[in-house]
Amino acid sequence: MLAATPAGPWRSPGALQASAWTVFAGALQGHTRLPSARLASLQAYGASSTSRLHPLTRAQQQRADPPQPPSSLLPNCPFRAAVNAQTRTSALGPIPDAIAAALGVQDGALTTAAGAAVDPAPLAAKLSARIQCSARLCVDMTKYAWHTDLADVNARVLLWSPKVPTMRAGQTYDPRGKDWVSVVAMCRELFKYEKRLASFFMRAAFHDSLAVDVSQCPGPNCGGADASLVLSLEEMARPENAEDNFAELAGRAAKKIASFYDVSVADTLAVCAAVAPEVLSKGRIKILTGSGKGVLRVGRLDSVVPAPPGNLPAANTTLEQFAAFWAARGISATEATALMGSHALIDDQACFQGKGMSDYCNPATADCSNVRMFRWENHYYKDICSPTLTVRTEKPGELDPVETPIVGMTDPEIDAEARRETCKFTSKEGRTMAMNRLALMRCGLMPEPVEPEDGVTVTWTYKNCRDGAAYGINVAEQCPHAHLWFYTPNDAYLGLACQGVGTSAAAAEVRSATRAFIKSQDEWDKAFSSAYIKMVTAFALWPDADGSDRKAAYLINGGECATGLHLEAACAQGAAGPASADVRALHAATYVPPSSKLRDSCKSCSQGVCPEPKQCEQCVKQFRADRRPKTNPLVTEANCCGCATLSRSLTYNATKDANGNTYVIKTDFGVRWPDVMPFVLPPQPLPAAAACPVPERQLDTFTFDDNVAPTVTIRPAGSNPPVAPEGDISDLCPAADGTIVEVRGYPSSPFRWKPFTQTYVAPPRAQVAASYARPGTNLTVDAYEIDIFTTARNIGCPGGRPTWFLSYNGSVPGPSFRVLKGRQTLVRFNNRLTPANLSGTPFSLQFDPCEGTRSGRPITVHLHGSSSLAPYDGWAEDSTCGAETKDYYYPNWRAGFLWYHDHQLDITSENAYFGLSGMYTVHDRAAEGGCGEPWNLDALPDWDMQFKDGVLDRHCQLYYDRAGPHRNNLYGDINFVNGIPWPVATMEPRWQRFRWLVSSVSRPYKLRFVDAATGADVGGSKCHVIAGDGGIRRTPATFPAAGLFVAVAERYEVVCDFRDFNGRSLYLLNAFDDDRMKDVPFFCNSHLVMKIDVRCNGTGCLASPPPVNAIFTPLVPAQPAIDRVLSQTDINAALTLARNRQCTRTFRFGRRNGQWVINGETWHTVRIAAGDVGHNTWEVWCLETGGGWFHPIHIHLVDFYVLTRNREEAQVREYERFTPKDMVQLDPGAEVSVLVRFGAHRGEFMFHCHNLMHEDFEMMRSFHVVPTPGSRTAATALPLQAQPSIVQNLNVVYDLYDDPVYGPARPRPSAGLTPLRVPSVQTTAALSFPIDNALYRIYYPNGAPNVNPLLANAAINPWIVDICQPQRAQQVQEQQV
Asked: Does residue 30 surpass a pLDDT of 80?
């Protein structure tokens, strides 16, 4: 095939070279293997064709080369009538009188459809040009001057007029004399070349001339066909400039076809859109069969204004309004439902293949021409009928996140956009155009298209996906479905009807239709075909009825060739190469039927010179009757349905070499007559957009002073709330029980709460179920067993109504672990959330993958802050379903405040919000067998606190509306501390140690202590920050008087001196911060967290002054664990890189196409964001926000240091500077750089936004820690990576546990497992497993079997855990709940 190639600005005729024909001949040789003699003749033809290539007028051409009829013409088949015998000489040159009249030329003057005068000079030059080019295919017009209607054809194409009713062309437009088979053929080939044009032509047909502007036609700016004798696919698919608009490109393609065949654009769109399903279904569905009775009416008139308003219902109309719209146009709800199925081609699907949730095509590495948006399938109905669909009208005041703009995008972001955009094209030209547009938008030189708001939110989850089996969906294939909703609210309303929503007649009809189309592709194909014909008839602008035959309805089947052109060579030959005898006969005009009165006339029919169209039609029938059954199986009704031009699918052009041998080639162009053979210009790829500077994204910096502590207003005794809230009480507080207030679009509970009425309670302590110590070593494993089930608790609702929770061992939050550093743990999680146990609770819905052979509600557990092996890290897709169990092994290698919580893909926010989280403290107290903690912390009482917010519905159940106000964030009006709303704690007047965790879904906290009597600050003078997510700081930091900002999932440890507050009360408040808490609603009591009464408790108070061992004494710096693997040299080098913005990697957390993304991608589109992170190397990661939202970012596996904020070290808060962390808050419009040591393990791990709504909606990706050689920062590796024997020994583990879903570590059925507290062979094997296999050998090399002794050298291996006292198996205690 002569494939179209991207080309650039065309050369002027004078610049054409004879060598151009050699290129064409080479292309022919590649496809037809022509002999050298034939190539020589082609080259000679090219040389002769390129002589005297200056424009000639028609008169000059006739004088220079008078037309000579071919010698083979027979006397009984004469030329057509000389339609151009009379011409009108004007500024436009000689134009046939008939054409001039049809175009409205008067005295040489021409006006456009919009009434504007047309400059005649460009048109005159175009009409008289000797060389005409369609893209890079050119013809010498003088070679075809013997065609007596050449001037007629030339003027009709180059001066084509739209068929608008106000113009002569529209008043005389007669569709009966048009070559419809060629229009069909050209569209068919065009859509094969660029499939996206097929979907766009369908869209345009729905809107009747959508985006096709004919107001400048006729004229030089019309955009019609460039040449009158040849029309190439490349011309139609190639943009006019490097950054063309696709809608305009499609509109121009329609105008080029319309002008070449002199039909209306409206007819072109309707006819071509009827061909689109045929191409995209690979021939399965044919609306225009090419034979038989006509089905599609033609004769539509064009409109100067594209897409008249009201041509389609608004995207957010209700089902009943939708049905009424179509009924008013004579189309039933069933037919309208069939038409909507064309949204199967909607380009929002981009690279989605449709085989699995993560099955996306990468156009850079694969052929993406068959992604789902290019397949005519009934997947549309399977999608919209999924029971996971919800639709909701948005309320005024609800906040939607701003999309990350393309302008200023980083390279990875623009790569993501490029993948998505280039997947929408199958031609090189289209992809180049898409890339160029992105480049210009990125530089700010082109505005980004803005999608209008429709006021409707459609949510698509995985809940109950398999219930779709009731509607006929094959749930084994459909569940889980795509993670993105591709369609419009109209589609969603149809889907709801399919699911049984609605009782109207329209809903019932739609329900029946959608379910039928799910079950039968063929039934939808048939329904669509008939409905399409009906629709484009109803939507068209037709001539006024005047009784004339021309204005009567004319129906076509797509095979009409009323002009009587050549017989089709494809009927005789199905492949390129030496021509068959039949083809030679056809093209030599020597074919003679065996017996027919047309024997002589049929000889010349193939040349298109027969005067009577009916004669040629008879010749075609005769040829098919003679040849189809006898000589070629390719001669079928589908392939040979009439006469056609050379653009016809499977039509071949026969050419002769110097020896008279005939050859057949496949062309990518259509020609006016069979004897037209263009020559080709050298390929000129569409140029890339010129490089332009990418504007630097402006950071939203703000000044702050953490030492400024405004006094809060304490309200009179008995007031509710006791401290003035952040706003007007009447706006923030419900007037009484049963009323709801909304703040920034988020609803409150329907209750008027009174804080500080319940006593603070610490969660129960997790109890050891079994313990194991390897003889002769200090290696130990302590086992715990946690059951996950539902529980109901009274949290203070009116009337004592209970609230349902998901729980670990029945506790909310879950049991608190207190584990000694250096003791490994086995925690077995048994998922009891089976369908039977969920029945009667608010949690009865099922989720993928716990459907089919598995069941129940899935969970996975992440120990946040632990450097666990990948299979024990809580991978989001390592699901434990109901009645299943998973054993997690944790190393506990350094002291710190960790927490465990659910991490199940898509429903982490739900599972965690409903209760699945708990605290996990790794300590090092000497009195309990550890090495001792610094600064006398062993002697201080400690308080582990988990802060989160929630909101209740009128039934006292936790309210969570993922499809409504909580679709992006979840904010509640109740502040819980360890599951208690606004508790009151009693603490002794001494030094106290606090461990604080924010476990809310979205809400951050800014915590400060104030005097409950005066409102004056207390924390700034009495408290210190001593530790963060990753453990102890080097030195304490002064507690910020303005408040300690704690993002979601962040942890800080704080010590406070309460010795001066005996008998007084303090409030722990949540201070509002409009910079870092942008758009966070503060309700009536959102600023209140808990109350602390400083009193002597029942056991009495300590002596005054307290003994020395009760006082916080930070006399010498401590050594954070991270400092063992990051030297000051490393830190200084990283700071230099950060100052110079030399990030190892940059990740922008933003929003694109309604999805939360990281560098433009999601978990399912491109999961791995960094695949070359070196084992035990360090990198500088720069984390940015891509819009006006804030994001708390968590990187699994590692601890890190915050280096800069907004590219400045001074912007880093003192309490987070050199604080070991695994979380960092990205403020709105901000940037943070962090220094990360990627150890101790290899494997694939997650990083994500810990706003759990954002995480669930795909703001999560992964990084892969791989062997150090070849990684991005191999030079920063720890010394142990230079020891091959150590690396090989570590790889024994890592080669297996690199995979986060490593088979042997996967969940298993709970049935048959012996509880860990029951001594058994199973229990012993489970306990000894991590030691026997030395899973965590990098931490515990001493005494572990088969471990390289070099690992025990602390000078080489800094990950070694210090174990300061002999370790033994623990005594097993009774389980407490």
From this structure: no
